[in-house]
Here is the input.
Amino acid sequence: PKRVRTRHFQNAKRDGIKITGLTSYDQLTARIFDEAGIDFLLVGDSAGNNVLGYETTLPVTVDELIPLTRAVAGAVQRAFVVGDMPFGSYENGPDEALHTAIRFMKEAGAHAVKLEGGERSHKQIRRIVGAGIPVMAHIGYTPQSEHGLGGHIIQGRGEGVKQLLADAKAVQEAGAFAVVLEMVPADAARQVTELLDIPTISVGGGPHCDGQLLVWTDWAGLTTGRIPRFVKQYANLAEVLGDAAKTWRADVASGAYPTDEHSY
Ligand code: KIV
Ligand code: NA
Here is the structure.
């Protein structure tokens, strides 16, 4: 299969073909999603909650995400792999941001990086793009600034749409090839999508965006905690795995496993 490149994102917007993305943190899911034709895989700092057992994404480090990104990038044949720059790895300025982005490209084999923030991150985006590294921007609700935003709150509501549009313009002008819109009203996301030449990728941004992205563990029903309302569950892996574990435990107890078939 032909690899997805940034031009695929641009062409998809032009041709009205929806872009799909899922998070992935390991080679097993990366291979499955790649073969299913998912366009891009985000090695999100949501690995903090989903893999590393943290309460939020804030403690996640570049050193933690590099091996996960390498696993995903090494497993795909077609999908575009985006490494997520964690909190504390780019806010200090363009030099720090470029340093981090280069680590994702060089040590992990990512095809692009993602970082949070609109106007506040435009200098970082410009520097990274200037070095030949594609950047996926991320505006609206930005989990790394949960405390600054005052909680898990929908962005771009009412007057907030002005800031959302300003952020969208800023990341496009800085050279981002796509922008994630997280937890914004569908109408605000529609306005951003119409305003921009680059594709918008919705995570809880409604149906008018150029693409959709979900955290795979939420989408596949592996997450057992609370999941956001915008997620639609396409499988119930927690139940499947839980049932398998119970059945196997009972089989071991009863002697039904292993049989001759499973023995040497
Ligand atoms: O880390 C992540 O999974 C993300 C997406 C939800 C946008 O940043
Ligand atoms: Na993230």
Remarks:
- The longest helix spans residues 237-254.
- The first strand starts at residue 19 and ends at 23.
- The chain has a mean pLDDT of 98.
- Residues 236-264 form one domain.
